TrEMBL record:
Gene3D superfamilies: 1.10.1740.10, Winged helix-like DNA-binding domain superfamily/Winged helix DNA-binding domain
Domain RNA polymerase sigma factor 70 region 4 type positions: 123-174
Matches recorded under CDD domains: Sigma70_r4
Superkingdom: Bacteria
Family: Belongs to the sigma-70 factor family. ECF subfamily.
Entry keyword annotation includes Cell membrane: no
Signal peptide start-end: none
Domain RNA polymerase sigma-70 region: 28-94
Name this protein carries in UniProt: Sigma-70 family RNA polymerase sigma factor
InterPro entries: RNA_pol_sigma-70-like, RNA_pol_sigma-70_dom, RNA_pol_sigma70_r2, RNA_pol_sigma70_r4_t2, RNA_pol_sigma_r2, RNA_pol_sigma_r3/r4-like, WH-like_DNA-bd_sf
Organism: Winogradskyella aquimaris
Keywords on record: DNA-binding, Sigma factor, Transcription, Transcription regulation
């Protein structure tokens, strides 16, 4: 199906949802639920919490559908709502994104080591899962979701410098974990 036709159908579906059409809401939910659950699970690492966050995200999206502007894709708009819902869940678990002095950060340039091709996507995701929560979330938002530091600072309500610091520290730890995995695989 051509992209223009799919976009026109999506716009028709969104208009019907704005008018309270429950069948249209169900169709929109069916179209995006698996992708949004995957996003939620990536942050919460718990199936039930991810299901709840996905449901809450859809409810918020339907309530605030008037705020959706077609400049961004609907999927990207919905994904941001679901991520924010996940972050709310994590904040309730008392994860604090405290301001960190950038001067505390030591920049270590390890150009002598590159990621080896024997490392799989699963190896990388497992290494990310081992990071502390604040670094893990910034890494996921930046590297996986593609948000920039300005967007991350708004989402997490932290200074941009703190976002950069958490990303840098997370990357250094990630590199250390993956280098360890690589060395274990070699011997």
């Amino acid at each position: 199906m051509p992209t223009n036709l799919m976009q026109a159908q999506l716009e028709t579906l969104i208009t019907a949802c704005r008018n309270g059409n429950q069948m249209a809401q169900m169709q929109l939910y069916d179209q995006y639920c698996n992708a949004m659950f995957t996003v939620a699970y990536r942050y919460l690492n718990n199936e039930e919490d991810a299901k709840d966050a996905t449901q809450e995200g859809f409810l918020k999206a339907f309530v605030n559908l008037e705020d959706y502007k077609p400049e961004a894709t609907f999927g990207a708009w919905l994904k941001r709502i679901v991520i924010n819902q996940c972050l709310d869940v994590l904040k309730k678990r008392k994860i604090e994104f405290s301001g960190v002095e950038v001067s505390e950060l030591q920049i270590i340039d390890n150009n002598d080591w590159r990621f080896d091709s024997s490392l799989t996507k699963k190896d990388i995701l497992n290494a990310i899962a081992q990071l502390n929560e604040k670094h893990k979330i910034v890494i996921k938002l930046y590297l996986i979701e593609g948000y920039d530091h300005t967007e991350i600072s708004e989402i997490l309500d932290i200074p941009i410098k703190t976002s950069r610091t958490h990303l840098r520290r997370g990357k250094l730890k990630l590199q250390e974990l993956l280098k360890q995995k690589y060395n274990e695989a070699r011997y």
